[in-house]
Design a protein that fits this description.
Chain lengths: ~450, ~450
């Protein structure tokens, strides 16, 4: 890679930030249906941006859900082909959730850009678009073949993407897949993630009386669906923090001494995490560290619960039902369907008298692991080392990108998780932001990586 | 009472129904703050109606909360004074909750009038207004002195009324208080309620991390406030349906054999109740019948629970907190404050690690009991017998009108619960209605009662 690329990146810096702000201004929330127009707008914006970057065959492809943006540049015969995946959809965000500024009006402050989607995933995704533009402008060509596949349903577990991959397997064929959609281990320390937890997402509905009942006239005489639901939910965990569902841990292998040692070497300050979260104590499965609990052990989290009158004031009525949503993170060989089977059995077996319970399956994604010794991962490590001045460490992520496992399974090639976010950038929370220093270092890493890959074939 | 009253009631029937519909059309919901204008409108409507009925000193009196409508007619020197209490506020209602017609657009069908507030309490309250009008028009005078005190905060546990009663004790002084705000035991069988359960209403908040956390990156490593809340709520009841809070049953005396026998004589078909509610089974404290559980035993009902993302779709985030509202029904000598103390202690003692819990007291009302042998109750029994052609039975209500106990305590006189609703009129639920036959029989009962009371002094 010649110095012209670095010069180009620095010369175009202000435009890059403005363009990222323009993309962040589009509230492309995929949860719910209120933001359909913005989803389309974000897809069109990206297609336009990819064309300007010099990519070819740019297309916004309709699916049964949100559209997928495809583009390629295939003028490096005999060289490897890289498929870059990213997502333009974002989590919901309301100013009232604790944002200091409007979540969809980006603000640059103290070297960060604040907006929903800044780090997850618009800021990280745009790095690769800018990188190919810089290489094409500064060097006239890309060192390898590059494809983009950018979806709009990652935050709702990518229902359309697996079918899309199978349908377009030839067009999407590549030697390696690159995804930048997570945090580095720490500021200044690049990292490559070698494992992701899987996800099983479901809704549980408890049904009771046919209509709301006055709690005075019926209270004590019928099963209250909220009581039944809380009883069921409380039964899902044992006192030691383990999941108390029979069969839940099938496919989970305990950490080896070597794996525990690797995790122990990673920076993780439990006291600092506790201070930042302002909780009286951290909590989790007995016998494991915070890092083990959140990256290498499976979990079952109740992420929402709703029952009874939701307005202000006390409406003393027993509701007809109560609902909850559960998100499990899976590891090893855990199978999302088998986990949901186990939970469904548990709920039916523990259902209190006087109500019925039903489980509705929403999302499933398997866990994923890749070896740090793979040549394409070693190439990424070298690119990071050059751009950041520091060798990356290898990490496990507690999060789920179910699509990583799908890419690996459907296209049969390794996935390199090349992350440029930071752990404190509040993805999914208020005041989400992205460290602009990593926008620049990310572009340089991405450019170097494409050059380094060209040596592999 | 002469025949002219009955003739007058029958001649004015259509107007009475139209007037009730006009009152029901005003959505005077007291829960929340959205319906302030309608609260004022309902109070003004009633004041106007009382003036037209011939009542004097009619006044809409401001309080710190919703206004109270006062009126009197005091031209029966030497005769008893009756204070009629009612409430013009109603429970929330949305067409989407399962209403067949708009809850605030009354419809007459099959002898019932359907609308929110039809039986609770506008339909029952208006009976007394129509009765004094009929007596004044047909006989030129009332047989006793009559006062009205109609509030607009009953559905939010009457926060302003106790202070109002103490402040205006002289003006409100009476020999007996009459309240029509509940159901008769069955269609065609009048009943007089001799006991009400008390109420303790509270909100419980569990607080966890300072911000919403991605369930992948933090799941398994921090206490989830929803888990903590469901654990706490599940701990409130034992397997036998009893409340598992130490001290909760203080002041509760078990039913005597005689009391159980009295309850056994009342009509109560548990199979029919189960069929109507469409539940797989009834459920409650072991060793008690449905009627005992819902009228003579105390209960703790969780009436709402809220935590996590409430929109459609799965947002896999651990929320900062979770909240719940609890309504306890109290009997015997249970004290609402002592009950809330006991629950607060229980919650603190059972609070899981990693979160904090807080209890906010919202409402309190003591249980109330009166003897069926009281002359003013016997007078009511005779009036019912004449109007309905059937002697009333004496019942216990599982509901709470905390203000009944307050009236009794502050004004020091008995409260007669003269009920004209029916048990299946869906108060607090969708398709609330009022049986119009009882509007007519109620007016005749109320007229006869005033005549009968005149004989007591």
């Amino acid at each position: 890679m010649n110095a012209a690329v670095e010069s180009y990146v620095r010369a175009e810096w202000e435009r890059y930030v403005e363009e990222l702000a323009a993309l962040l201004r589009i509230p492309s929330v995929s949860v719910g249906t209120e933001h359909r127009d913005s989803i389309q707008k974000a897809a069109d914006w990206l297609a336009d941006r990819l064309r300007k970057a010099g990519m070819e065959h740019v297309e916004v492809i309709e699916t049964e859900g949100n559209p997928i943006v495809y583009a390629d540049w295939l003028h490096a015969p005999g060289k490897p082909t890289v498929l870059v995946y990213g997502h333009y959809d974002v989590q919901p965000a309301e100013a009232a959730d604790g944002w200091d500024t409007d979540p969809f009006e980006p603000v640059v402050r103290d070297g960060n850009i604040y907006a929903r989607g800044a780090t997850d995933d618009k800021g990280q995704l745009i790095i690769h678009v800018n990188a190919v533009e810089a290489l094409l402008q500064a060097e006239g060509a890309l060192p390898v073949n590059v494809k983009f596949c950018i979806e709009g349903e990652e935050e709702i577990s990518s229902p359309s993407l697996p079918g899309f991959l199978e349908q377009h397997a030839d067009r999407l064929h590549a030697d390696v897949i690159v995804i930048s959609d997570g945090p580095m281990i720490a500021h200044g320390t690049p990292s490559i993630c070698t494992s992701l937890r899987g996800l099983a997402g479901m809704e549980v509905r408890v049904k009771g009386p046919a209509q709301d009942l006055h709690s005075g006239l019926y209270g004590g005489g019928v099963q209250n669906p909220i009581h039944a639901l809380t009883h069921l939910l409380a039964s899902l965990h044992a006192k030691d923090g383990k999941v108390a569902v029979e069969g839940f841990y099938n496919g989970v292998q305990d950490l080896t001494a070597e794996e525990r040692e690797q995790l122990r070497c990673l920076p993780s300050d439990e006291e600092q995490i506790q201070r930042e979260l302002k909780v009286p104590a951290l909590y989790g499965e007995e016998g494991y560290t915070f890092l083990e609990r959140t990256t290498a052990r499976p979990t079952l989290e109740v992420v929402s619960v709703t029952g009874g009158f939701q307005g202000s004031g006390l409406k003393p009525a027993i509701p007809t039902g109560a609902t909850t949503k559960i998100a499990c993170r899976l590891v090893g060989q855990q199978d999302p369907d088998a986990v949901m089977d186990a939970i469904e059995r548990h709920l039916q077996q523990h259902c209190p008298p006087g109500v019925t319970v039903e489980l509705i399956r929403q999302h499933g994604g398997r866990p994923y692991q890749v070896s740090a010794d793979h040549p394409y991962l070693r190439a990424a490590a070298e690119a990071y080392g050059a751009a950041f001045g520091k060798e990356p460490v290898y990490t496990r992520s507690g999060g789920s990108i179910p699509i990583v496992e799908v890419f690996n399974r459907v296209l049969g090639v390794p996935v390199v998780m090349m992350e440029f976010g930071l752990p404190d950038e509040n993805l999914h929370g208020p005041n989400e932001h992205f460290h602009l220093e990593n926008l620049e270092k990310g572009m340089l890493t991405a450019c170097r990586y494409l050059h380094r890959l060209a040596e592999e074939k």
